[in-house]
Design brief:
By secondary structure, the chain is of the alpha+beta class. It contains eight helices and nine strands. The longest helix has 18 residues.
């Protein structure tokens, strides 16, 4: 996670204000760096903490116009030609929305409770084929007022209560999740706006906006529990993203073969998929590829196996 911290260290409060394209490029690098970084809590902040830092940097840039060190390749945000939406990918994602809607059950956790979840991660070394399996168990405070216990690749992390004015994506507090719109065309501008506004039309979004939407929607779907209608809306919103396509024959961390949904637009990450059952469109899990500072490359598969609403930390269903 050191790359995100380096970006923030390079902040120069005396620099001239960024142009709008340069500001968008800076946001692009912050998000794209996160997607490429290996998650090692023992060498830096957790992914959730890094997302909080990176998003804070994005918001600060939008407000102050101060500069960060950026390097970009190829076309800048807003210069990408419009892409046709992929019908096959839309069919899978809209099917996933219908499946999720049928599986939803009413849930309204109290603010003093915790959301428990257990996730399986399988990490395969590309060179040796050696597989490491991690079982991550998490307890997230529903209203963010209590310490949360999370795990990343088997490492225990204590997340302190949210402070007033702090922001993390996805919102930790249930009250903030409930405020997100369940209309997919409103959800997209809401999540890419630092203010959470929905007055922007999806027809006016740039290439970077769509990359940001895809990335943040994927993070939202990692939440084990969402308010009613939110998960189907997130799948339908992904179906609106230009540049998504299907990848057949992708296996998840349980060994099930499904169809992958990959983003191929600006800022895309090779080998990163959302995996769905090819017939029912049930969501199966995530696939990512990454590398370490030493040059080791790996494939990481993950899926949530159970969740529940509990009254206290370390309580299991």
């Amino acid at each position: 996670m050191s790359d995100e911290l380096e970006l923030l260290r390079d902040w120069d409060a005396d620099a001239s204000p960024l142009t709008e394209p340069a500001r968008a490029q800076a946001r692009h690098r912050l998000l794209n760096t996160i997607t490429r970084t290996e998650r090692h809590p023992d060498t830096g902040p957790s992914r959730r903490r890094a997302l909080r830092l990176a998003t804070a940097g994005v918001v600060a840039m939008a407000i102050t116009g101060t500069a960060v060190l950026i390097t970009t390749e190829g076309e800048g945000p807003g210069t990408v030609a419009p892409q046709m939406r992929n019908a096959a990918a839309a069919k899978v994602l809209n099917g996933a929305a219908a499946y999720a809607g049928k599986q939803e059950r009413p849930v309204a956790p109290r603010g003093d409770q915790f959301i428990y979840s257990k996730r399986i991660i399988k990490e395969t070394d590309r060179k040796t084929g050696k597989v490491k399996t991690f079982v991550d168990v998490n307890w997230d405070s529903v209203d963010g007022s209590k310490r949360s216990l999370t795990m990343e690749r088997g490492n225990v992390i204590w997340e302190e209560p949210m402070k007033d004015g702090s922001f993390v994506w996805p919102p930790r507090e249930w009250s903030k999740l409930k405020k997100l719109p369940t209309d997919p065309e409103k959800l997209v501008p809401a999540i890419i706006s630092a203010r959470g506004t929905t007055d922007q039309s999806i027809h006016d979004l740039s290439g970077f906006d769509w990359f940001q939407a895809y990335f943040l929607l994927g993070e939202l779907l990692k939440q084990p529990v969402l308010p009613p209608g939110m998960r189907p809306a997130a799948y339908e919103a992904l179906a609106l993203v230009p540049g998504v396509k299907t990848i057949p024959g992708v296996k998840d961390s349980a060994g099930r073969t499904g169809v992958g949904i990959a983003y191929t637009g600006q800022g895309s990450q090779k080998g990163s998929y959302l995996i769905f059952d090819a017939e029912s469109y049930e969501f199966l899990g995530f696939r990512n590829e990454g590398s370490t500072a030493s040059g080791r490359t790996y494939i990481q598969l993950s899926h949530t196996v159970e969740w529940a609403i509990v009254d206290r930390l370390k309580q299991r269903p």
